[in-house]
Amino acid sequence: MLQKLKHHFLKGFKIALGTVLGIVIAELLHLQFATSAGTVALLTLLTTKRGTVRLIIQRLISFVLTVVLCFAAFKYISIPAVALCLVVLIVAFLLVVFKCEAALSVNALIAIHFFTEQDFTISFILNEFLLVLIGIVIAFVLNLFHRYAAYESE
């Protein structure tokens, strides 16, 4: 019982630390939506160590898909809310089909940033990529410091 409580506390500590580190690093880099880097770290840390690696790969691949879909949708659909709806629909559908639903939350967040800013410059796309990269790198590094073997089936 005490061992399980210790495990849960350490996981909570990692999630809190990862969230704050993501925000601080993004702020130091003067990124827009800096809190999103903390959110990406938090959402990525919710998985097991093995799940984190799989989720990182899914997030990177689906990030590219989301950016391309946002660019096309916001360019060719004159009503931004309809464009956002279509992007989220397509991304959600594809992620469910390929059993990558855990990557959806971050992609929806990125799509909302494009919806909010209507900016498709290289610097804004880089901003969004860095938010994702910061969050997933923090999650990967923090997951190196915790043994999940006894809890992989949870």
SSE inventory with pairings:
Layout: H1 2-28, H2 35-45, H3 49-76, H4 80-97, H5 104-117, H6 122-143
In brief:
With about 150 residues, this protein is an all-alpha fold.
Poorly predicted regions: 150-154
Helix percentage range: over 70%
Radius of gyration: 16 Å
How is the quaternary structure best described? single chain
In this structure, how is the largest beta sheet organized? Answer: none
Work out the helix count: 6
Q: What's the mean pLDDT score?
A: 92
Beta-strand percent range: under 5%
Total beta strands: 0
Order of helices and strands: HHHHHH
Distance between the termini: 15 Å
Tertiary shape: globular
Supply the helix-strand structural class.
mainly alpha
Features:
mainly alpha; 6 helices; globular; disordered C terminus
Describe the structure.
- With 154 residues, this protein is mainly α.
- It is 78% helix and 0% strand.
- It has six helices and no strands.
- It has helices at 2-28, 35-45, 49-76, 80-97, 104-117, 122-143.
- The longest helix is centred in the middle third of the chain and has 28 residues, at 49-76.
- The chain is globular, with a radius of gyration of 16 Å.
- Residues 150-154 have low confidence and may be disordered.
